[in-house]
Design a protein that fits this description.
The chain is of the alpha+beta class and 137 residues long. The protein has helices spanning 2-25, 67-84; strands at 43-48, 54-63, 88-89, 102-108, 112-121, 126-135.
Length: 137
Amino acid sequence: MKAVLAALLLSTMPAQAFCPQLEALFDGGKTMTLPQPFSTDAKCTTSRALSGKTSTHCAWPFDYRVPQASQAFDAVIQAVPNCLSTSLQVENDQNVNHPDFYDLRIFQTRRGEVGVSLKDKGGLQQTYVFLRVTPAG
């Protein structure tokens, strides 16, 4: 029983550290850290869409196609539903017109939309994990 409880606590700890920052992005926050064990700070910026909505974009660069990039992507897509009480909504995204790898997951929440993507940038020899938060309304 103790082993099961310890495993449950360890599986929820990464999301607990990540969640307050994710919630703050909906309110204009500008800082974001990957869930444990990564704990890497992101550079976050904002953009305004043609619709007038403002999104916050955070990016974490990794060396090209290192396993840690995929692991960080998986950690984020596991943490988001725990933080925002939602499930993954699979949506078809636009095709990417270059040979680099691209994966996007979109979450619809009561507060807005969260997109998490993994992108290989061959020309830069980097792989990025991106987080996009667009508040509802």
